[in-house]
Amino acid sequence: MKNKAVLLVILPACILLCCQCAAQLCMPLGDPKPDSPYSYVRTEIRVLKSIRSGLADASKVDSLVVIPASDPQRLHKLVERNEIMNAVADDYNCAIELLKPYQNSTNDNVRTSVTGFNEGIGATKQVDARLLEMMESFDKATTADDFDQPAIAKQLADLNGIKADARKLIIMAVKASSFGILKGVGGDDEWKPVAFTITEQQRAKLLAEAKELAKRQAGTETYVDVCADFLVDTLTKNLPTIPE
To answer: What is the distance between the alpha carbons of residues 80 and 57, in angstroms, rounded to a whole number?
Structure first.
């Protein structure tokens, strides 16, 4: 009874703390400056954190795709799966919300990046919604004959293809944003950076935040890590910055 009482005290506090952390992640960094590539890249790092959270949440569904009617924990698992999918949707909605102040930026690189993120995240959300529909249809089946397995295999292949395209869109969005903080010379095939368009203090701030994003545990790598490594590589280039 004593342990139960302690749990009843601690659990609400933990839930409140988690909600506060999620809310903090979705809050803009100060006053967003839509036309500032520096302000945008800082926000972009928060967007990538939110996407990473969505990917981590989505991975928890793997063991709950098919829940047999005979499973004594069936109801509990169905509720758990729905809660996870809601958390995934919240993560992606948070990312989209963070991007909103920048979608009408006068800076072409920022605007292009936002478009790529929105399209990539939107496609990912559509795939997740379709996967949930499929899982719910599995729940209603009573035998293996209730499944059209070739059709399901094709649908899964199509959805995996859409997710792969979404990943590419988001990686390209990060690359597009880097052109806003770099000055370069040469054409499309010969372009190379020659300087930063931000101050040394701004570069150091972005680099510290990008390095924090680049931290991950072994075995949990996703395309967000590709984006983080790209940002770190960009910000560590030995190039001059603009005066403070």
So the answer is: 11
Q: On the CB side of 45, how many CA atoms lie within 13 Å of its CA? A: 23
Instruction: Calculate ∠ Cα 100-102-106, nearest 5°.
Output: 145
Q: At what angle do helices 2-26 and 74-99 cross, to 10 degrees?
A: 30
Report the alpha-carbon distance of residue 12 to residue 160 in Å, rounded.
38
Residue pLDDT, tens place only, 156-206:
899 889 999 999 999 999 999 999 999 999 877 788 999 999 999 999 999
> Residue 3 pLDDT more than 50?
no
196: three-class secondary structure by DSSP? strand
- Stretch (H or E) spanning 187: none
Strands in 86-202 per DSSP E: 182-185, 192-196
Q: From the CB of residue 165, how many other CB atoms can be counted at a distance below 10 Å?
A: 15
Which long-range contacts does 143-148 make (Cβ < 8 Å, 24+ apart)?
none
